[in-house]
Write a sequence for this structure.
């Protein structure tokens, strides 16, 4: 038939097919080379980012964000810290206190809150490590008042309360700029070691059925006189400890204690606004974290939230432990058993328990 253009050479079709196949192979080869080049470039950029550091200090990988932080992250961080503490038989009183408080928070949470399977397993492993640290660390070097605290606090005559996040208990609009000018003079960084605070904690922790709280300790706890920095935080911590003692209802109502706590933590938030205005200087990080920890114990969301947790996780670290800047100097203490890491332990565990 004419007009159909039939090839007379049967091999001509094969040659064209082979040429097309060669062209396809060449295209695939070029595509593969482009892919390899892209992969190498991406890997180089990624390695550069990791090596360049994400602002978390020595040996860190990348910055933590509110998208990457999670309850799982908190648990892993706490487990790593507890493993380090297990290897150290010589913990100071603040770390031993933090371990006992952390154990108390988990057990109190278990008493009132139904957990999912993951949370149950995490709590089980955390309690195992905490108990091991409590039983196996020495406290022979503690002063007598510290030993009385460690041997009794959150262990005898305890009053449990349902742990919940609380909103709108803190006045976040409280004026703070008048504090800016003189704040460094108002805050006495040495007040962390106040004798009165430890003696009152010891008195409350060892109260018997007579519930006779020393008057000077009641005054220290409920005073409305201005105080700042660690002194204020020790007053609020004493209030929290007393609120969880069976003697608390004999001296005041639950509502009265809650009002007192919210008033004091509102003043703390005012201080935090000052610190944030100052971009939280290195030497105030320990204080800033203690403020979040102690007022976070009451469940105030202004102190216990993911944003604050992200801020803390991105502070300078060494060997996955936070570094403490000492006494306004450039001297840095990155020991995992130092004061700031005792705060981290409580803050992370409380965050794991309270936040979703």
């Amino acid at each position: 038939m004419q007009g159909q253009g039939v090839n007379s050479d049967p091999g001509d079709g094969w040659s064209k097919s082979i040429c097309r196949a060669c062209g396809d192979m060449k295209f695939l080869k070029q595509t593969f080379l482009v892919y390899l080049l892209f992969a190498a470039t991406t890997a180089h950029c990624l390695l550069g980012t990791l090596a360049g550091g994400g602002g978390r200090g020595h040996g860190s990988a990348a910055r933590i964000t509110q998208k990457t932080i999670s309850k799982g992250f908190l648990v892993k961080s706490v487990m790593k810290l507890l493993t380090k503490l297990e290897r150290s038989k010589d913990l100071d009183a603040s770390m031993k206190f933090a371990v006992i408080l952390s154990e108390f928070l988990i057990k109190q949470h278990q008493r009132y809150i139904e957990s999912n399977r993951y949370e149950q397993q995490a709590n089980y492993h955390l309690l195992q490590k905490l108990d091991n640290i409590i039983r196996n660390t020495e406290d022979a070097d503690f002063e007598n008042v510290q030993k009385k605290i460690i041997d009794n606090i959150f262990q005898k005559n305890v009053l449990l309360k349902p742990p919940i996040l609380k909103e709108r208990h803190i006045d976040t609009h409280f004026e703070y700029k008048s504090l800016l000018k003189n704040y460094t003079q108002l805050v006495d960084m040495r007040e962390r070691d106040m004798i009165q605070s430890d003696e009152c904690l010891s008195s409350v922790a060892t109260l018997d059925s007579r519930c006779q709280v020393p008057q000077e300790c009641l005054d220290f706890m409920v005073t409305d006189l201005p105080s700042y920095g660690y002194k204020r935080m020790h007053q609020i911590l004493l209030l929290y400890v007393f609120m969880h003692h069976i003697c608390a209802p004999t001296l005041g109502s639950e509502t009265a204690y809650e009002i007192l706590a919210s008033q004091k933590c509102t003043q703390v938030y005012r201080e935090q606004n000052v610190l944030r205005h100052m971009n939280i200087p290195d030497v105030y990080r320990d204080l800033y974290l203690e403020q979040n920890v102690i007022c976070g114990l009451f469940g105030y969301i202004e102190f216990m939230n993911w944003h604050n947790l992200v801020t803390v996780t991105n502070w300078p670290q060494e060997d996955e432990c936070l570094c403490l800047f000492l006494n306004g100097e450039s001297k840095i203490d990155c020991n995992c058993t130092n004061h700031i890491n005792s705060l981290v332990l409580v803050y992370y565990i409380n965050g794991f328990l309270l936040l979703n």
Residues 176 and 271 are 7 Å apart (CA to CA). Confidence is low (pLDDT under 50) at residues 1-22, 31-60. Strands lie at 317-318, 321-322, 324-325, 332-333.
